Amino acid sequence: MAVRVQREDFDCGAEIAALTAGRTEIGAVVTFSGLVRDSGGLASLELEHYPGMTEKALAAIEAEAVSRWELQASLVIHRYGRLAPGDRIMMVATASRHRQAAFEAAEFLMDYLKSRAPFWKKESGPDGGRWVDATESDEAALARWK
Amino acid sequence: MAVRVQREDFDCGAEIAALTAGRTEIGAVVTFSGLVRDSGGLASLELEHYPGMTEKALAAIEAEAVSRWELQASLVIHRYGRLAPGDRIMMVATASRHRQAAFEAAEFLMDYLKSRAPFWKKESGPDGGRWVDATESDEAALARWK
Amino acid sequence: MSELRVRYFAWLRERVGESSETVETGAETVRGLVDELSAREERYALAFADLSAVRVAVDEELADLSAPLAGVREVAFFPPMTGG
Amino acid sequence: MSELRVRYFAWLRERVGESSETVETGAETVRGLVDELSAREERYALAFADLSAVRVAVDEELADLSAPLAGVREVAFFPPMTGG
């Protein structure tokens, strides 16, 4: 169970390997990776966050996932700073005996992280900068976990 | 969109990187990795498959996923042969603009692969060999995709 | 009479004692083939004793016991699949 | 009167023109603080013009406008979060 907030890139495969090393009771690992998506003319993406609160919010979300599903291991990594199209933004990984728990917990982590962790995205392109709006569907996604 | 059936191990991180390289329209990548789980005294797991049919069955399952969700890329790798506890058995990866499609398609691939791809597992332990039974829950998992 | 390749996997392979064989058969369906083989030797009768635990593929496509054998090259018998 | 650290993120930071400041306030709730700041200078009034688009954290925990300020060290204002 770990949370990391960092400027540096990370290696999904190495993270999965570290999560599961020597853990033969794990049968299923689900990962989600978020990438900087260019829907047209994106030059860069600036990720701002709230140091201190970010780590606490992510740890609270992860603790909630651990209380709801039987997880052998979990991990949340989220970057901040300036990123280019195609760059990795974040990943979550969940490891469990069976696939159902791993899938559900990963989706739960993503849904909460999207609208409850203090990150904000500003896109820069040819027309200047634009703060990415939160979407109603992200807020609505939380309803299924109540 | 690719399917590989192989004896050799694979590298999840390298597979994700290859899937998304230069693809800036991808925002979300979900992976599932299946590992050899030891629920007590497992010495090895032998994975038998039906060469020829396996590739066709996996390709058909993947084609169905691609027809149901808007995927930018997908991958199924499944190993066969003798594996040890903790070894990787298989992975699926799905890449999409948004997380919902990537999650759903990965779960769909896993549900179908579990009970529609011709693989069979034999566990070897101190009491000899035992063919792993299919579970009713695996068959039931298909119902939600009808 | 036609000639078929018949394949067996997992515990069906172990009970029959072959992974693959060529069979001369007059059966019109997979079920007819099962009956013919079961009548032929005890090991087949044992392998096919509980058909609810047997799955079938015809020319590498999942099928069922009522599938016709006309024009078919290969039939495979195996237990429910356990991939993933 | 008490002394608070007030932080701003994303476009709230840009509109206020500060990422962090120390504020002397007599307000009893976050809403009172918003009103005080908005009355003080135009840039605050602009930043807080649409409170439905503003989220609040009190001592690094999500809160709402009615949250009391007694004993609080830090209040943060920001738009809805867009992580992931």
UniProtKB/TrEMBL annotation, chains A, B:
Top-level taxon? Bacteria
Pathway noted in the entry: Cofactor biosynthesis; molybdopterin biosynthesis
UniProt xrefs under Gene3D superfamilies: Molybdopterin biosynthesis MoaE subunit
Keyword terms: Molybdenum cofactor biosynthesis, Transferase
Q: Which reaction does it catalyse?
A: 2 [molybdopterin-synthase sulfur-carrier protein]-C-terminal-Gly-aminoethanethioate + cyclic pyranopterin phosphate + H2O = molybdopterin + 2 [molybdopterin-synthase sulfur-carrier protein]-C-terminal Gly-Gly + 2 H(+)
Q: Does the keyword Isomerase apply?
A: no
Enzyme class, UniProt record, top EC level: transferase
Pfam families referenced in this protein's UniProt entry, alphabetically: MoaE (PF02391)
- GO molecular function annotations of the record: molybdopterin synthase activity
**GO biological processes:** Mo-molybdopterin cofactor biosynthetic process
Alphabetized CDD domains for the sequence? MoaE (cd00756)
Query: Which InterPro entries does the annotation name?
Result: MoaE_sf, Mopterin_biosynth_MoaE
- Enzyme Commission designation: 2.8.1.12
**Family affiliation:** Belongs to the MoaE family.
Assembly and partners are described as:
Heterotetramer of 2 MoaD subunits and 2 MoaE subunits. Also stable as homodimer. The enzyme changes between these two forms during catalysis.
Stated role: Converts molybdopterin precursor Z into molybdopterin. This requires the incorporation of two sulfur atoms into precursor Z to generate a dithiolene group. The sulfur is provided by MoaD.
Query: What is the recorded name of this protein?
Result: Molybdopterin synthase catalytic subunit
Q: Which organism is it from?
A: Amaricoccus macauensis
TrEMBL record, chains C, D:
Note the Pfam families from the entry: ThiS (PF02597)
UniProt keyword annotations, A-Z: Nucleotide-binding
UniProt KW Nucleotide-binding keyword: yes
List the GO biological process terms.
Mo-molybdopterin cofactor biosynthetic process
- One example GO MF annotation: nucleotide binding
Task: Supply the Gene3D superfamilies for this chain.
Answer: 3.10.20.30
* Keyword Nucleotide-binding in record: yes
The lineage's top-level taxon is: Bacteria
CDD domains, per this entry? Ubl_MoaD
Q: Which ranges of the sequence are coiled-coil? A: none
- Supply the name of the protein: Molybdopterin synthase sulfur carrier subunit
